[in-house]
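Regression test case RT-17, inverse folding.

Input:
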């Protein structure tokens, strides 16, 4: 039937994560999450996901919600749509269709869809219910869990946002079969991240199951997603608004976000995070808090899952400059996540420009 997790907020059950292999349980899961009888449901998705799953999801919901007005909002796929202009168009749709606080939004798609829908839900009428139905590996193991929502502002990633919890995260592992290989590799960056920063046992499992994961074996994927979500939920339960330990989930993201911005979002988010993890592990090794053996073990597992792409034609000083505009800045200090070994991470505010420069030079050499 699948696996379930409950995410707590302020020591109280907040929402469920349901891991299934189809959409058959979606309506029942929504009905079970609270006592509301939704009169209107808007499914928000993008132009890539729409032809694959929108009709199927609408059909499933229509059977179980025969008296509910079910509509959809589709925007152009890609990071370039993750902005306030798209949010404004969604607001207009909801207003025209008379959506109120007793209605529901469903985010059907990857991280961009989830972030944008969540932000809209947080701000429309000061809060409306929303459900995450993530369709990429990265969104299933990371961005759909934890209540981080937001959009980009001009060229600055995730600068406008809110912490706003979904009512449900419904994961259908079967949709991963339609993803290109690069999307799977991108998602694996966030999966491997959990092993590197806090779960050495999971890291070893990932290292031992490369072939099964890459073949998209159903049972293996279910375990992989469950363990990733379990790690994410444990961190966000302890620190829901990123005042402390949750910031360790940004391992690889400081330099990763800079590269993503400078690539004009042509590289997948996970690919950039993979490059950022290489940089962070390299700095940790150069500081002698990670052994050379541990560093190359990390490089090997990232290579095994094809996590990071070859990076050429990027200006090192532009990367350093871009990190100074990241939302993880605190005053003039970058909150950089480093590791003291595989499975042990910490937040450091002393990483220098030269250390980052050396790390980016290393990335360019691999």
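Golden output:
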């Amino acid at each position: 039937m699948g696996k379930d997790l409950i995410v707590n907020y302020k020591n109280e059950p907040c929402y469920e994560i349901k891991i299934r292999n189809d959409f058959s349980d979606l309506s029942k899961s929504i009905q079970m999450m609270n006592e509301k009888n939704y009169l209107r449901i808007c499914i928000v998705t993008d132009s890539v996901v729409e032809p694959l799953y929108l009709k199927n999801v609408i059909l499933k919901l229509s059977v179980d919600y025969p008296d509910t007005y079910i509509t959809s909002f589709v925007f152009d796929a890609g990071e370039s749509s993750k902005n306030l202009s798209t949010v404004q168009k969604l607001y207009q749709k909801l207003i025209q269709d008379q959506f109120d606080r007793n209605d529901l939004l469903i985010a059907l798609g990857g991280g961009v869809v989830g972030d944008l829908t969540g932000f809209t839900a947080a701000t429309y009428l000061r809060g409306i219910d929303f459900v995450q139905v993530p369709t990429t590996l990265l969104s299933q193991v990371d961005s759909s869990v934890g209540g981080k929502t937001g959009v980009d502002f001009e060229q600055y990633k995730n600068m406008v946002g809110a912490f706003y919890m979904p009512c449900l995260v419904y994961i259908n592992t079967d949709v991963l079969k339609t993803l290109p290989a690069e999307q799977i590799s991108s998602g694996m960056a966030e999966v491997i991240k959990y092993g590197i920063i806090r779960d050495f046992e999971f890291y070893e499992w990932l290292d031992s199951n490369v072939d099964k994961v890459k073949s998209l074996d159903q049972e293996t994927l279910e375990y992989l997603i469950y363990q990733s979500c379990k790690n994410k939920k444990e961190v966000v339960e302890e620190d829901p608004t990123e005042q402390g330990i949750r910031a360790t989930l940004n391992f690889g993201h400081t330099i990763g976000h800079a590269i993503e911005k400078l690539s004009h979002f042509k590289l997948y988010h996970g690919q950039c995070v993979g490059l950022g993890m290489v940089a962070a592990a390299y700095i940790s090794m150069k500081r002698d808090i990670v052994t050379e053996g541990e560093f190359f073990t990390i490089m090997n597992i990232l290579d095994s899952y094809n996590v990071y792409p070859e990076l050429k034609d990027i200006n090192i000083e532009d990367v350093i400059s871009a990190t100074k505009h990241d939302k993880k800045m605190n005053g003039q200090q970058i909150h950089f996540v480093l590791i003291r070994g595989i499975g042990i991470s910490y937040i450091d505010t002393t990483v220098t420009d030269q250390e980052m420069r050396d790390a980016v030079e290393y990335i360019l050499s691999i």
